[in-house]
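User: Can you predict the 3D structure for this chain?
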Amino acid sequence: MSKHGRVLVAMSGGIDSTVTAMMMHEQGYEVVGVTMKTWDYANAGGDKKETGCCSLDSINDARQIAVEMGFHHFIVDIREEFGDYVIDNFVDEYLAGRTPNPCVLCNTHIKWNSLLRRADALDCEFIATGHYAKINQLNDRYYVSKSKDLHKDQSYVLWGLSQACMERSRFPLGGYTKPEVRQLARDFGYEELSKKGESFEICFVPDNDYRSFLKHRVDGLEARVDGGDFVNVAGEVIGKHKGYPFYTIGQRKGLGMAFGKPMFVTEIKPDSNTVVLGEESDLFRNGMTVGNVNLMKYADLLEGKELVSQIRYNDKGAYSTVKELENGQIYVDFHANVKGVAPGQSAVFYEGDDVVGGGHIIGSKIS
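Assistant: Here is the predicted structure, written as structure tokens:
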């Protein structure tokens, strides 16, 4: 009988999830490893070698570690549910003129649900992952907090976790820096693992070319959207573009035209296939509306509470006052203008290091 119970560890074959499995084993848990197959890179139309958590090499690496450490390991095929939800949403959001964050959807709607179902089937009380974050509890509420390593912190992509998920989750790397995790791998006797690199790409777009992915995924997309208008903030036509889905808020490079001064994408209008360009000053907003809200630390939003709102991964965040609207959405009033608020991205609200909640950006207010 294990000291702390049975834990299902999500293993990608990378250093973080592998060290997580080793730490849980050392702490006295009975470890069961699981590797989730989410995507076949060949289906994306890419021409580079398959890499990342879905590659055969990564799956074999995870299985080998489990064999060496003497615990069970399973491979779970979730390609159908992943594709139906995460990839379809990714495409739909770009076609709607928004900028999606597929890692948030994958974490909160696919991976955790899949992990919990497998944990129940395998009689595992807990699940553990290699995320750099912490889970804390205040009275009867569970919430995510930032990790010790702020450069690696992943609390931003975990805002959608439910109370049930957090109650059963363990993040053993939350109290470590990445160099410390590499040292742990060496201490466990895995020198080569400690040198393993990292991938910052979307798993189903390993070449980082989302435009190529969209063209491959949506038949006839280029013909449908090519030749739309670039307009300035006054609505005057100043050029032609390749199609509104291929641009994102704040983009400056790759516009395909010279305007005599730096110009940025400030708005995308899918209904008219129009992309609005402006100067850098035109990117600033003093407020935004957030929907699909999930609250963590508190059951109810405290009206008028000052929080730090983060609008993208690795964003430093901005002081703001939040207010719940009658339709359940949240209005965020920035204390100082914020640059590049992009509909479709996640907005996460922090109180110190703690995640109060988050949601998807619906729109922004021009200052």
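The chain has nine helices and 17 strands. The radius of gyration is 22 Å.
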